[in-house]
């Protein structure tokens, strides 16, 4: 199974998107808990 540069870049972008989504959810949850 050979990894192309494009495939590696796609995996990196997917990981970055997942991290951004997790961070975004964390910020939302902190804001919600802070406002309660």
Could you characterize the architecture of this molecule?
The chain crosses the membrane at residues 12-33. By secondary structure, the chain is mainly α. The protein has one domain (1-36). 86% of the residues lie in helices and 0% in strands. It has 1 helix and no strands. It has one helix at 5-35. The longest helix has 31 residues, at 5-35.
Write the layout of secondary structure elements.
Blueprint: H1 5-35
Concise synopsis of the structure shown:
This protein has 36 residues and is mainly α. It has 1 helix and no strands. Keywords: Membrane, Transmembrane, Transmembrane helix.
Q: Summarize the amount of helix as a percent range.
A: over 70%
Mean pLDDT: 87
Q: Total strand count, please?
A: 0
Main sheet attributes: strand count, strand direction, barrel closure: none
Keywords: Membrane, Transmembrane, Transmembrane helix
Transmembrane segments: 12-33
Main attributes of the structure:
1 helix; 86% helix; 36 residues
């Amino acid at each position: 199974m050979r990894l192309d540069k494009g495939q590696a870049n796609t995996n990196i972008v997917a990981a970055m998107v997942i991290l951004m989504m997790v961070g975004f959810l964390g910020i939302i949850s902190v804001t919600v808990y802070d406002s309660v």
